[in-house]
Every structure is written in structure tokens, then in C-alpha cells.
Design brief:
The protein is mostly helical. The chain contains four helices and no strands. α3 packs antiparallel against α4.
Length: 130
Amino acid sequence: MSQVARVLSGLLVIFVVSMVGDVLLPETGMPKPMYWSPVATLIGLVGAFLGGLVARRGLLLPALAVWLCLWSYLTWALYQIADGTGNASLSSILHFNGAAIAASFAALIVGILAGQWLARRLTARPVATA
């Protein structure tokens, strides 16, 4: 499998784990949070770890680019909603979502780096000794 295919597969794994976690979260009896949630962060961490494991290397920058695009779009959409009510304030949107933004950023980086580290350890060839 080419490295490009591995990176795309890693991104797909992150997406699928996030979507499955989002669907299954209410099944645990926990309500879907309106703001930051430790469980949502854990789901993101697991998805990033598995994505890093699949990609083996080179996933961090593409994943951060997707993360930045998604949070930028979400912030813009929330601003548009608030603008319709006359209460649009970028600072209040970022204040309300700051913990989720920071937690998802940290989970993405830590998960991917841990997954890539484990993939390197699992695929390392033993050194021959005489």
C-alpha cells in the first residue's frame, strides 16, 4: 500500500471512529453534550490513535489541515446563526467552544503521534546479531 493510501486510510479511520462514537454516545446513557465533553475527547483520541496506527507516518499535517478546516467552518456557521439574532460575536463563540477546540487539537496530536510511534515499533525489523 502506498503512503498516500495509508494517509487517506488514516484520515478515514479518524472520521469513521468519530462518527461511530457520535452515534453510540447516546446509547451509553450519556446525553450528547452542547459543549466540550471528556468522552468526545476520548473518542477523538482513540480515532486519532487508530488513524496514526494505520497511516504509520505522515498523517499529522493532513489531519491538522482537516481539523483546522472543520473548526473554521463550524465557527463561521455559528457566527452566521448568531448574526441572524443580532448577537454575533466571534469572541463569545470562541470562548464557548475554546475547551472543545483545545481538547480536540491535543487529542488529535497525541493520538496520531502515539499511533505512529506504535506502528513504527510493530513494524521495526530486529537487528541481526552475530
